[in-house]
Amino acid sequence: MNAQLSSLMEKEVSRKEFLGMSGLALASIFGFGSFIKLLTGKSLTGSRHHAAPSSYGYGASVYGGAKAQ
After folding, report:
1. Do residues 44 and 33 touch, judged by C-beta distance below 8 A?
2. N or C: which end of the chain has fewer CB within 10 A?
3. Cα distance between residue 6 and residue 4, in whole Å
4. Is 67 inside any structural domain?
5. Planar angle of CA 45, 23, 7, nearest 5 degrees
6. How many domains does the chain have?
7. Would the pLDDT of 44 be above 60?
8. Is there a domain that residue 30 lies in?
9. 34 part of a folded domain
10. CB neighbours of 43 closer than 8 A, spacing ≥ 6?
């Protein structure tokens, strides 16, 4: 593996090739899905549906006082 790394580091590449390899390495590290999600700003798993607030359960009441009317 050390010989492979040495041969890779000694190879001359253009700026375009370097940027392409760097982009591929980053995409591989962070995952292509996360990269596309970052660029588009959308979720890949579907819509962001949040449940309606409930008057029961954790967080239903104000801490230490009554709710403002």
Report:
1. yes
2. C
3. 5
4. no
5. 135
6. 1
7. no
8. yes
9. yes
10. 37
Cα end-to-end distance, the chain, whole Å: 69
Burial of 33 (C-beta count, 10 Å sphere; 0-12/13-18/19+)? exposed
Which comes out higher in pLDDT, residue 66 or 32? 32
- Is 54 within a domain? no
What is the rounded (10 degree) CA torsion for 44, 49, 50, 51?
Answer: -140
- Please give the pLDDT value at position 63: 73
pLDDT at 16 over 90: yes
Tokens 């801490």 map to which residue?
A: 63
Residue 33 domain boundaries: 12-43
Cβ atoms of 31 and 24 within 8 Å: the answer is no
Q: Contacts from 45-54 at CB under 8 Å and sequence distance 24+?
A: none
Distance CA 22, CA 64 (A): 54
